[in-house]
Design brief:
The complex is a heterodimer of chains A (100) and B (162). Chain A is mainly α and 100 residues long. In chain A, 79% of the residues lie in helices and 0% in strands. Chain A contains 3 helices and no strands.
Chain lengths: 100, 162
C-alpha cells in the first residue's frame, strides 16, 4: 500500500464522519462545521491523487473548493442568524414547517 | 519516516474529528475543528502541496473560524444550551450504514489501481500559480463572481427587516 492510498482512506474517513455529523448533531452551527469536514475530506482526496499522478490540476480544483467553502459559510451562517432572529430557532429539530 | 509522519498526522486528525462529532459545547467543537484544519494543512505539506497548505491556514483557520466565533457570540447562550450534543437514535441507526460504506470504499481503494502518469513537478507554488493564471483563468474569474454573489447574499440575509 502506497502512502497516497493511505491518505485517500483518511479522506474518506473525513468525508463520512462529516456526513455522520450532519445526520446526528442537534445544533445548527455544529451541523455547518460538519459540512466543512466533508469539504476538507474532498480536498485531501484531490491532493493525494494529485501526488500519485504527479500533476497539479487537483490542487487547482481544491483551491476552487476553498473559495466555494468560504462563500458557503457566509451564506449558511447568514441563514442561521436570520432563522434565529426571525423564529428563535437554534436546533435542527425545530425546523419542521415543510413537514407539517 | 514517511509512515511515521503519516501516523502522527492521521492520529491527530482522527482525534479531532471525534472532538468535532461528539463534544457537547459548540465552542469546543469549533476548537477541535481548528485542530483538524491544522492537521490537514500538515498533510498537504507532506503531500507536496505547499500553496494549498498556506491557503488552508489563511482561509479556514483565520477567516472561516473567526466568522463562526462571531456568529456564536451573537446567539444567547441559554438558547444554545437546549440543543447541544447529538441525537442518540440517529447515532445508532446511522453508524452501521456509514461503517459499511467505509468498508466498501476502502476495499475498492485497496484493490484498485491509480492512474500512472508521472509528470514531475518541481516547484509547486510556481506551477500552480502559473496554471491558475493561464489555463484556469476563466474558472478563477468565475470563483471571484461566486464570492461576490455570496457577499451580496450574506448582506441581504443579515439586514434588518423593515
Amino acid at each position: 500500500m502506497s502512502i497516497e492510498k493511505a491518505y485517500i482512506l483518511i479522506s474518506i474517513f473525513l468525508f463520512l464522519s462529516g456526513l455522520f455529523g450532519v445526520i446526528i448533531r442537534k445544533n445548527l452551527i455544529t451541523l455547518l462545521i460538519s459540512t466543512e469536514l466533508m469539504l476538507n475530506g474532498v480536498n485531501l482526496a484531490l491532493v493525494s491523487v494529485d501526488r500519485a499522478v504527479g500533476g497539479i490540476e487537483g490542487q487547482v480544483f481544491a483551491l476552487f473548493i476553498l473559495a466555494v467553502a468560504a462563500s458557503e459559510v457566509a451564506v449558511g451562517l447568514g441563514l442561521i442568524v436570520a432563522l434565529f432572529r426571525l423564529k428563535g430557532y437554534e436546533g435542527s429539530s425545530e425546523i419542521t414547517h415543510l413537514r407539517e | 519516516m514517511e509512515w511515521l509522519i503519516f501516523g502522527f498526522l492521521s492520529t491527530w486528525a482522527v482525534l479531532s474529528v471525534m472532538g468535532v462529532l461528539f463534544l457537547k459545547n459548540p465552542v469546543h467543537a469549533l476548537l477541535s475543528f481548528v485542530s483538524l484544519i491544522l492537521s490537514v494543512a500538515g498533510m498537504f505539506i507532506h503531500l507536496g502541496a505547499e500553496l494549498l497548505a498556506g491557503l488552508q491556514l489563511i482561509i479556514y483557520a483565520v477567516a472561516i473560524v473567526v466568522f463562526y466565533v462571531l456568529v456564536i457570540t451573537t446567539i444567547p447562550w441559554e438558547k444554545v444550551k437546549r440543543f447541544e450534543g447529538f441525537y442518540k437514535r440517529e447515532f445508532f441507526l446511522g453508524f452501521p450504514v456509514l461503517l459499511l460504506s467505509f468498508a466498501l470504499f476502502s476495499y475498492a481503494i485497496l484493490n484498485g489501481k491509480l492512474a500512472m502518469v508521472n509528470l514531475e513537478v518541481k516547484d509547486n507554488v510556481k506551477e500552480v500559480g502559473k496554471s491558475l493564471f493561464t489555463t484556469y483563468l476563466f474558472p478563477l474569474e468565475v470563483a471571484s463572481v461566486i464570492l461576490l454573489t455570496a457577499m451580496i447574499g450574506a448582506i441581504l440575509l443579515g439586514r434588518k427587516e423593515e
